[in-house]
Amino acid sequence: MYKWQLDDLYVGYESEEFKSDWAKLKQFEEDFNQLTLEDNLEDIKAAVRFKEDLLITARRIGSFISLTLSTNTTDETSTNYRGQFSKVMSQLTKNQIILDRFLGSITTDITQDSELSDYIFAFNELKEEAKHLLDEDIEAVISKLDNSGASAWSNLHTFLTSTVETDVDGTTYTLSEIRNLAYDADQDVRKKAYEAELAMYDKIKDPVAFSLNNIKQQVLTTSSLRGYESPIDETLQQSRMDRKTLDSLMTAIQKYLPEFRRYLKQKATYLGHKNGLPFYDLFAPMGEASQQFSVEESGEYLVNHFRPFSDKLADLVQEFYDKNYVDFIPRKGKRGGAFCSNLPFIGQSRIVTNFDGSLSSVITMAHELGHAYHGSIIQAHKPLNWSYSMPVAETASTFNETLIMNDLLNNTDDEVEQLALIESLLQDTTQIIVDIYSRYYFETKLIEAKEDKFLFSQQLEELMKEAQLEAYGDGLDPDYLHPYMWVNKGHYYSAGLSFYNFPYAFGGLFARGLYTIYEEQPEGFVERYDELLKLTTVSSVEDTAKAMDVDVSDVAFWEKSLDTFVNYIDQFEEITNKLMTTK
Q: Which family, according to UniProt (predicted)?
């Protein structure tokens, strides 16, 4: 019950559809040899059709394998297919490099051709990427070695974190289950869960440290070989984002860190702590709005709250609940956290979450449904225009969160309920601002250190504590930090996606800025918003923002977004001070 269905992809590995696509995937290398790559419209169109067909087939198969494994990491058949799939895709790397180099070097005017004109942005990107492509034989070797390199280390991290267990008071918990207890209303439960969580990481920290070191070493090696000054420069190109925009974002965050520390210290005082907030109380619920939801109630709740903004969004939410597009409940072997996988080739998406019935879980669902809504907008593009970059990836998801929270806050006068809602808002915002800053700091320092040495678990723990103190300052109790957050956050464990941290801050604050525009100019906003989301796959970050007349390279935009939270921190202080005097 409450498990998703993947039948719209394939009913199983033995289905005729899967067998047919698997055979087709293995045929692509031979089909590539039939192409002639001359700089003329006919050959260009043939190359594009080949890339489209390969993309659709590979994404369908790869999605089915990865989604199956995400809810059962020990599935032997899927694990075997994952290895075979990686091998086939590695063998096709050389062909794809040749194609990309060809398409990035053409001089034929494609603007007048109806089949190609939609791909102008994609062709320009290929020209830029071609500057960093190695010889196709070298790229092919890198891809093949990745199967036993970074990808294997990443799989080890996923396996260890999804299968480690612990016993607390006679009950066995997975890591996802124990982390959910961080939101429990009982402080003793939260503290026990925190201690148990650290003990779980202690069991697996050494192999995970080897995973992290070797992944980052591969990142440094390949980034340097391809001519990037550093991995962050490579990430910015992948993000379609200027360094000036990132620097403006981080400058604004640094300026407002003291405000979030003020909130954390006030929460600590309210909960009876004198030395800052211990990590185990970071997610402590406050007030009286810690109501519980069944899965069905969460669906009704979200549909009702999204309907005033957009019928299209509300209808999409209803469809996800009606058609079993979500895997809700945590269980052994299921990966932790939550994610949305867009499947534009079938016009759908799928969501994994570890739902526990809390308001926080409902907000998480809203977040992931934002990704799904974004996916429903961009699936109207042609296949090579289906991918958006990391920073804008979090726009619709955090906009959904903002819609829910602001609607809730605007419809209650009860101070105790207001406290619960404001605390939830500030808690989540602290994660995408303060904690993200700590993650960005950690990964920056980690990559700098990896230039010279191997970092064992103890060194990684110290670096993580340093990062947390740099970001949280005196808002956290230095005796109760979380030295193993480098084990917990799966975003560190990808060789092809470094620095997947700042996009959350970008998305959160960008969405907040968009919401301000919505409040000021509601007429026609949804149409402009949908157009902005559609632009995310065919424009730079900066040009996408211009659809709303926003300059994201200007620190003033980010400061304006951040400033909207100061009022909530003031309200939080006012309400908690009043409640403390009546205790």
A: Belongs to the peptidase M3 family.
Query: pTM score, two decimals?
Result: 0.85
Q: Under 8 Å CB-to-CB from 117, ≥6 apart: which residues?
A: 110, 111
Q: Give CA separation, 251 vs 270, 433, 558, in Å.
A: 30, 12, 9
Cα–Cα distance for residue pair 375/344, rounded to 1 Å: 7
Beta bridge partners of 166: 173
Q: How many CA atoms lie within 13 A of 174 on its CB side?
A: 17
Question: Percent of the chain at pLDDT above 90?
Answer: 83
14 burial via Cβ count (<10 Å: 0-12, 13-18, 19+): exposed
CA 469 to chain centre: 24
Residue type, 168: V
Pure H helices in 11-119? 16-32, 41-70, 76-91, 93-103
Indicate the DSSP class of residue 379. Answer: T
Contact 483, 219 (CB under 8 A): no
Tokens linked to 243? 């360094």
State in Å, rounded, how far the first CA of the chain is from the last one: 43
Q: CB of 555 within 8 A of CB of 253?
A: no
**Cα separation, 305 vs 92, whole angstroms:** 46
Helix, strand, coil percentages in the chain from 3-state DSSP, rounded to 5: 65, 5, 30
What are the distances in angstroms from CA 553 to CA 251, 384, 436, 506? 11, 27, 19, 11
Pairing of strands 348-352, 326-327: parallel
Residue 290 has pLDDT above 60, yes or no: no
> How many residues are recorded in the chain?
583
In 254-375 the beta strands, taken as DSSP E runs, fall at: 326-327, 339-343, 348-352
- 433 DSSP assignment: I
For residue 64, which of 13, 1, 2, 25 has the smallest C-alpha distance? 13
Amino acid at 297: E
Nearest to 537 by CA among 347, 381, 346, 373: 381
Q: Using CA atoms, how far apart are residues 58 and 88, in angstroms rounded to an integer? A: 10
Mean pLDDT of 308-332: 95
**Degrees, nearest 5: CA angle 274-563-500:** 80
Distance CA 86, CA 103 (A): 24
* Tokens found for residue 399: 């906009």
How confident is the model over 244-260, as a mean pLDDT? 98
**Which letter does DSSP use for residue 431 in this model?**
I
Pairing label, strands 171-174, 348-352:
unpaired
Residue 545 has pLDDT above 60, yes or no: yes
DSSP-derived secondary structure letter, 340:
E
Q: Which amino acid is at 496?
A: G
Whose CA is closest to 66, among 6, 127, 25? 6
Residue 66: which of 404, 313, 340 has the closest Cα? Answer: 340
Return the CA Rg of the chain.
Answer: 24
Report the SS3 class of residue 15: coil
* Tokens, residue 316: 């999409």
Q: Which helix (H) or strand (E) holds 180?
A: helix 175-180
Phi, psi of 241 (to 5 degrees): -135, 140
What backbone phi and psi angles, to 5 degrees, belong to 174? Answer: -85, 170
